[in-house]
Amino acid sequence: MARASSALFLLVTFGAVAVSAGNWHHPRGHPVHDLFKRQNSTGGYPVVGSAAWTAAYPSNINTTTVPAAWMTAYTNAKNAGLIPDLAPTTMVNGNPTYAAGIDPMSATVCSSTDQCRINGTTTQIWDAPDGMVGVAFDDGPLPPSTILYPFLKQNNQPATHFFIGENIWQNPTIFQECLDDPLQDIAVHTWTHPYMTTQTDEQLLLELGLTIQIIHDSTGGRVPKFWRPPYGDSDVRVVAIAYYVFNLITVIWNQDSNDWQIGDTTDATGVYTDASVTANLTNWLTGPKSPGLIILEHELSNDTVNCFINTYPLHASNGWISKSIPDVLNQPWYLNSQNNTSPMVALDVAATPPSAVPAPPAPPSPSPAPAPPSTTAAGSSGAQVSAGVSGVAKSSSNNSTANGAGSIAAISTATLLGAALCSLVFWY
Ligand SMILES: [Zn+2]
């Protein structure tokens, strides 16, 4: 992001202080890199799919102990006040549910399952910039991925793959096929795919950390920068642990293709078919360009993959710029490398020193009236949004793009300037 920004400037709400992007640094050798180093006498990593590689990861996460380095990083962040105290949800009728009296839309919860957006784009992303599609697939690597990968390669199409750690572990050959295409960005979708708000802090550390570890070890040491919560289920606690312990940015979506429900006849909201999913994708790809699209799609079945393939020509024919999630955000793919072929070096990333304290919670914005997509982003490019993990805004529906922040990025206060500054934004 910082690399893009000759025209980038920062606006601090109580004083028109401009800070050049070049001043946005964090110390080299961020400690996140150190969390995943392994003691290896040969100095290398096991070959993907080898016996040593398979043996390096647990078969049962429930009997796994959180590594001391991860726990120390968590404890430091917790003691610094960066990890909110919020009890896990419990599953009620198939939905993650907070205790009585806890409002999922409140600033102290901000559940993405309830469509509460954590304001700013430092810790959580919902939209792509105008005119762009962030191409991403969840749940791989799986057998249907072997239809997707040759197609992406044939079209020189970069995409982000939010991989499930257990699926990597169980499908190393398919995983390697993805790694063999340098245009494919590898990101985190947890180890076992739980509703993350149901998990304890320690379980969250394992779900994220183990998946980071297997990706790190299998890519020559690259540390993922982005993750997506299964079912889009996150809140301020989950997002804070991802960001302040592992420096992971949470990526949700602004359109759900519902491809994962194809053939599911039990959903009261309707039966999804190849035709209905294709119609949804067609509508969005032929629709408004603002904000840009981040569509929930899966490499889960032949149907889900074919829905993408069949609508793929609409990206180009409608003038979309379609790239991986970090590419549309103009960010490095990994915490320590620009992409799959760049050298691994310490990069400028939005890391937060443990001593920093996030901005105080902002009151929830009033719910915007539902509006058609064509009106949602009008005039929004200069809008100001509050920054930090605590600010919230509600989007109007699951298929809404009402945030209107597609061309705006906000940096958390803690990231840059500590607790003294309350609200800052930049344009690019
Ligand atoms: Zn998933």
TrEMBL record:
This is chitin deacetylase. It is a lipid-anchor; GPI-anchor. The lineage of its organism: Eukaryota, Fungi, Dikarya, Basidiomycota, Agaricomycotina. Residues 374-383 have a biased composition (Low complexity). Keywords: Carbohydrate metabolism, Cell membrane, Cell wall biogenesis/degradation, Chitin degradation, Cobalt, Glycoprotein, GPI-anchor, Lipoprotein, Membrane, Polysaccharide degradation, Signal, Transmembrane, Transmembrane helix. It is found in: Cell membrane. One of its GO terms (biological process) is fungal-type cell wall biogenesis. PROSITE patterns: NODB (PS51677). Residues 1-21 form the signal peptide. It catalyses: [(1->4)-N-acetyl-beta-D-glucosaminyl](n) + n H2O = chitosan + n acetate. It comes from the Eukaryota. The chain crosses the membrane at residues 404-427. The keyword Metal-binding does not apply. Its EC number is 3.5.1.41. The keyword Signal applies. Residues 131-323 form the NodB homology domain. Its cofactor is Co(2+). Residues 352-383 are annotated as: Disordered. GO terms for molecular function: chitin deacetylase activity. GO terms for cellular component: plasma membrane; side of membrane. InterPro entries: Glyco_hydro/deAcase_b/a-brl, NODB_dom, Polysacc_deacetylase_ArnD. Residues 355-373 have a biased composition (Pro residues).
